[in-house]
Amino acid sequence: MCLICVEIAKSKMSVNEARQQLREMRLGMDKDHIAEVEAKLDQVEKATSGKP
Ligand SMILES: [Zn+2]
User: Fold this and answer.
1) What is the pTM of this model?
2) What confidence tens digit (pLDDT) does each residue in 7-19 have?
3) What is the distance in A from the centroid of ligand 1 to the CA of 18?
């Protein structure tokens, strides 16, 4: 878990914001976890697309 995961879990951050954060944070992050976060963002995006 990282800040991005926490914020997504709390729905405090939009997918776009999280992607931006990820870009800024990825240098200090574990490569495997970056993939996890990206997968999570894709899920959230699918889950929220189509809703107002
Ligand atoms: Zn995380």
Assistant:
1) 0.84
2) 999 999 999 999 9
3) 10
